[in-house]
Design goal:
This protein has 8 helices and 9 strands. The radius of gyration is 17 Å and the shape is globular. The chain has 257 residues and is an alpha/beta fold. Helix 1 packs across helix 2.
């Protein structure tokens, strides 16, 4: 494990991609979390306190935000996943769980596919949150909207971003990054997605307008391992509305895989 240095209340590894959310010397299991469109590694900084102390929690930092602001946006989800898979190579010998929410769920799925292409089954559990299976992905072009309409569309599902709309200068900085994330999310397509070897858990909010239970259930076609679906009260950001419910369920699952 690389040495860590202080980073905005948490820690950050030497690499650009993988950020430890806390200090743990010898984790029994590693949990790697991938943010939603517009999200950052800091989305998961509170998770370690809700998990057993021997679970190492790490978050991925995508290019184009925070300390990676000057870097160009990813060309696509597949190329993004290849970079992340390379950064995760040191973790492939340990028990490993990968979690992704919304856009991050598709990135997580592609990361696991790439790791398995290189090494076989090295991820025990893939957790995909808040998004339909790739074969059921609905076409959309929100990223092509004019700035005002685009910002309103993003704010509709993301209360945190809605609060940022009161600071126009900040929106001017963040909007291009969020638009780039929406672009790679919306152009991502897998008409015949391959199955992963890892066990798979699909989770979502019961009031999420973007994904229904059937869309979550169809993730079960994309694993040759075990599969389960768990729904929680709330909308697209149910994991923020009641973080402890989701993380508590993950804590129950981790020892059994």
């Amino acid at each position: 494990m690389t040495q860590a240095r202080a980073y905005s209340g948490g820690t950050v590894g030497d690499g650009l991609w993988i950020r430890p959310c806390h200090q743990t010397d010898a984790p029994r299991r590693r949990l790697v979390c991938l943010p939603h469109a517009g999200g950052t590694a800091r989305e998961y900084i509170s998770w370690p306190a809700l998990l057993p102390p021997d679970v190492g929690v790490y978050a991925v930092q995508y290019p184009g935000r925070q300390d990676r602001f000057v870097e160009p946006a990813a060309a696509g989800i597949e190329s993004l996943a290849q970079e992340i898979a390379s950064a995760l190579e040191p973790f492939t010998g340990d028990p490993l769980t990968v979690f992704g929410h919304s856009m991050g769920a598709y990135v997580a799925y592609e990361v696991v596919l790439e790791l398995e292409r290189r090494h076989g089954r090295v991820v025990d559990l893939l957790v995909v949150s808040g998004v339909a299976a790739p074969q059921d992905k609905r076409p959309s072009e929100v990223h092509l909207l004019p700035d005002e309409a685009f910002a309103a569309e993003v704010a509709r599902d993301n209360e945190a971003f809605a609060r940022l709309l009161t600071a126009p200068d900040l929106v001017e900085v963040l909007l291009p990054m969020i638009r780039d994330d929406y672009r790679i999310f919306e152009v991502y397509s897998r008409s015949r997605p391959p199955a992963v070897l890892a066990s798979l858990l699909a989770t979502g909010g019961t009031e999420d307008p973007g994904v229904d239970p059937a869309g979550l259930t169809r993730w079960g076609q994309l694993t040759s391992g075990g599969f389960d679906v768990v729904s929680f009260p709330g909308g697209h950001f149910y994991l923020v509305e009641d973080e402890s419910a989701l993380v508590g369920r993950l804590a129950e699952r981790l020892p059994s895989v």
